[in-house]
């Protein structure tokens, strides 16, 4: 989601690559790679799409063109390399290397020993298993009987075949701040994987999207006091994992798309008091957002609650306790199954951006109040004004075109009551009054006659004489 915000330097380097792939570089017949230098400080060694299956020798020009203060990008994108062997030294104090889109199944020990200033490594879209990843891969130069560390800050392992991580994997990468494990068949964060993650104590960004996990152990993030961003999209979570509360004091960005969660409630975000941006989209089972769901998010500024095709209800108290100290600036409710919203759901006028397209809005008095009186209509971005779906006469109209004129209003003024006089009576009023009284009297008389008749009948039936039998005479007759 927002991880690229933190790797601006890497983006600068990769922009050089895009330009270099179209530019004419300095060629060396001994190497399939091209060298391109920009501004004297940024050097690109482009070995992409060269149909190579092994790491070549660097061109001779590389040492003469580089300097210790430069940024260097080495890219082997989209080749057929299967084994990452030990790389030769290159100049530069910040080095990025990409092996994305190869066929890597093995990485040799000390592969990056001579490039200890490597800060970015992309090994995504290969066939790397957890057994291949060992701490020895990232050993730096060997001095005084020990291996030193390397400067690695960003490691991309996405789209591989990783089930588990070695607990010592990050032993030689103390500066690791961004780790991407997305699109790996991890399924379960086992004990050794948890130890590996918790050892990366400077980690700021963690991507666990599409890793088939459905839970996170409570101690998985213990010690990660710097973790700011996490992506848990595309997994099997039924609830927002409770373990996130351990990093609640540092976590600022959470992406929770495409999980089979049915509802969000007051337990969903407990402890995440410093969250700034929350994205909950593409959850096809999500039906409702209950009372006090967002109450723990005291510093939230951006909320993406979009593309949840079954989301039909948001409690008017979903932001309970936050309305008096409102921090939200952007709210996106696009492409859900919403038809109505409460007028007091949030202080609409305090928003800067509001998205509501792609819903089946009932353009009633509440929506008219939100859009006009509370000024929500002024928060829509250009070209993103929602339509009415109902009532029929407003179907297809912009919701900003509806007004409160058709809604009932209550007159708060009172006029003196007018006195009653006999002159107000009309002949028909007198006639209907007489007929009414006569009808009531007649019905009463009929009911009285019926009741008296019933009493007489039952009195006669119950008043018949009781016959007694002499027991002695009966016994004598039998003798």
Describe this structure in words.
- This protein is of the alpha/beta class and 479 residues long.
- The chain folds into two domains: 1-203, Alpha-Beta Horseshoe (Leucine-rich repeat, LRR (right-handed beta-alpha superhelix)); 261-409, Leucine-rich repeat, LRR (right-handed beta-alpha superhelix) (Alpha-Beta Horseshoe).
- Helix content is 17%, strand content 15%.
- The protein contains six helices and 24 strands.
- The protein has a 15-stranded mixed sheet. The chain has a three-stranded parallel sheet with strand order 16-18-20, with no helix packed on it. A two-stranded parallel ribbon has the order 5-7.
- The chain is elongated and about 125 Å long.
- Residues 11-29, 410-415 and 474-479 have low confidence and may be disordered.
- InterPro entries: Dev_Immune_Receptor (IPR050328), Leu-rich_rpt (IPR001611), Leu-rich_rpt_typical-subtyp (IPR003591), LRR_dom_sf (IPR032675).
- The chain crosses the membrane at residues 430-454.
- Keywords: Leucine-rich repeat, Membrane, Repeat, Signal, Transmembrane, Transmembrane helix.
Task: Please outline what is shown here.
By secondary structure, the chain is α/β, with parallel strands linked by helices. It contains six helices and 24 strands. The strands form five sheets. It has a 15-stranded mixed β-sheet.
Fold blueprint:
Blueprint lengths: L7 H15 L3 E2 L6 E5 L3 E5 L14 H5 L5 E5 L7 E2 L9 E5 L7 E2 L10 E5 L19 E2 L2 E2 L6 E3 L21 E3 L10 H9 L5 E3 L21 E3 L21 E3 L7 E2 L12 E3 L8 E2 L12 E3 L8 E2 L15 E3 L20 E3 L5 E2 L2 H9 L14 E3 L36 H36 L8 H8 L1
Parallel strand pairs: 3-4, 4-6, 5-7, 6-8, 8-11, 11-12, 12-13, 13-14, 14-15, 15-17, 16-18, 17-19, 18-20, 19-21, 21-22, 23-24
Antiparallel strand pairs: 1-2, 2-3, 9-10
């Amino acid at each position: 989601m927002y991880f690229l915000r933190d790797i601006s330097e890497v983006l600068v380097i990769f922009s050089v690559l895009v330009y270099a792939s179209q530019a004419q570089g300095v060629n060396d017949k001994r190497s399939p790679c091209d060298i391109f230098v920009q501004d004297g400080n940024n050097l690109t060694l482009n070995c992409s799409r060269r149909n190579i299956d092994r790491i070549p020798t660097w061109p001779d020009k590389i040492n003469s063109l580089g300097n210790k203060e430069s940024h260097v990008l080495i890219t082997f994108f989209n080749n057929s390399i299967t084994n990452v062997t030990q790389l030769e030294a290159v100049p530069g104090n910040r080095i990025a290397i990409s092996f994305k889109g190869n066929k890597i199944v093995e990485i040799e020990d000390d592969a990056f020993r001579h490039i200890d200033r490597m800060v970015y490594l992309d090994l995504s879209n290969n066939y790397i298993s957890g057994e291949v990843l060992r701490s020895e891969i990232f050993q730096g130069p060997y001095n005084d009987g020990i291996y030193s560390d390397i400067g690695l800050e960003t490691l991309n392992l996405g789209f591989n075949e990783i089930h588990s991580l070695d607990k010592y994997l990050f032993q030689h990468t103390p500066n690791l701040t961004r780790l991407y494990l997305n699109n790996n068949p991890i399924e379960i964060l086992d004990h050794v994987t948890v130890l590996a993650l918790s050892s990366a104590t400077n980690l700021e960004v963690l991507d666990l999207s599409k890793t088939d996990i459905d839970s996170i152990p409570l101690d998985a993030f213990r010690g990660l006091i710097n973790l700011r961003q996490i992506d848990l999209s595309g997994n099997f979570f039924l609830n927002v994992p409770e373990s996130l509360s351990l990093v609640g004091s540092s976590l600022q960005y959470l992406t929770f798309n495409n999980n089979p969660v049915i509802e969000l409630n007051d337990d969903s975000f407990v402890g995440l008091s410093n969250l700034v941006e929350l994205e909950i989209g593409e959850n096809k089972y999500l039906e409702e957002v209950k009372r006090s769901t967002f109450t723990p998010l005291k510093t939230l500024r951006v909320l993406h609650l979009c593309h949840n095709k079954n989301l039909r209800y948001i409690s008017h108290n979903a932001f309970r306790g936050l309305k008096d100290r409102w921090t939200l600036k952007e709210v996106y409710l696009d492409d859900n199954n919403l038809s109505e919203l409460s007028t007091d759901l949030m202080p609409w006028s305090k928003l800067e951006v509001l998205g509501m397209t792609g819903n089946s809005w009932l353009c009633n008095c509440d929506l008219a109040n939100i859009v006009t009186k509370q000024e929500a209509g002024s928060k829509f971005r250009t070209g993103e004004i929602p339509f009415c779906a109902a009532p029929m006469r407003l179907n297809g109209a912009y919701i900003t075109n509806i007004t409160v004129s058709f809604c009932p209003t209550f007159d708060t003024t009172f006029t003196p009551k007018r006195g009653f006089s006999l002159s107000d009576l009309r002949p028909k009023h007198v006639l209907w009054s007489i007929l009414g009284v006569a009808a009531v009297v007649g019905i009463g008389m009929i009911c009285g006659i019926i009741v008296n008749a019933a009493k007489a009948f039952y009195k006669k039936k119950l008043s018949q004489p009781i016959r007694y039998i002499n027991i002695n005479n009966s016994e004598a007759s039998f003798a």
